[in-house]
Amino acid sequence: HHDRDINASKNILAAGLAVSVCRATIRPEQSKSVKAGAKNPSGKKQKPKS
């Protein structure tokens, strides 16, 4: 089991380094409240993004 864990950690490290070298940005998923049309700070309802 340890060999797989070590191999997995090497793969994760390599992927993380590749992302940092490419300066790729990772956007988190939009929150459910925004998808549901929650009001923004100005009090206006936001349009759901399609």
From TrEMBL:
Region of interest (Disordered), ranges: 28-50
Organism of origin: Microcystis aeruginosa BLCC-F108
Name of this chain's protein: Transposase
